[in-house]
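Homework help board

Subject: predicted structure for assignment chain

Our instructor gave us this sequence and asked us to write out the predicted structure in token form, then describe one feature. I got the tokens but I'm not sure how to describe them. Can anyone check?
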Amino acid sequence: MDIKLVQTLLFVVFILSLGLFSLLFKEKNEEAVFKKLKLFPRCFKLIGLVILLCSVSLPWIFQRLLVDGTNHLGMICVNFGLSLICFSRDKVEDEMSNLIRLKSFYRSFVAGIVGFFFLTWMENKVSDGFSQLSADTLLGTILGIYLVSYYVTKSKIRSAE
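My token output:
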């Protein structure tokens, strides 16, 4: 496949993704929200945080865990720790927190996909060969954006009350 064609296709997909992303931020009337989500117990946040911190710090303490200067096993563990943090209960779980979770999840998913296409397009624009971000990087980005979006939105709503 021609490099110019790939770059053009990635740019078109990026523009279309931006259009879809802008539709998500329109105010909508949410009439029905899930009454109760199936989430992990609250103690899993602490377990996820410990896994996250260990997977980030241990490979640089023990250099043998690095493969070609990157931490592949650590990134998998980071995603696991972030998943435990994302999908565990808060102290207060009500309909408002379910709505915040839902909005944060679909915003982070779309932002991750748009960012994925944009970074892949930029990488191919700069370099000669076709390369793509890894799936664990994409998942980690989506989970990280979800956590930031969830807690920022939650703090804004709680401070407005």
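Reply (TA_rk): Your tokens look well-formed. For the description, you could write something like this. The chain has two domains: 42-89, 92-160. That's the kind of observation they're looking for.
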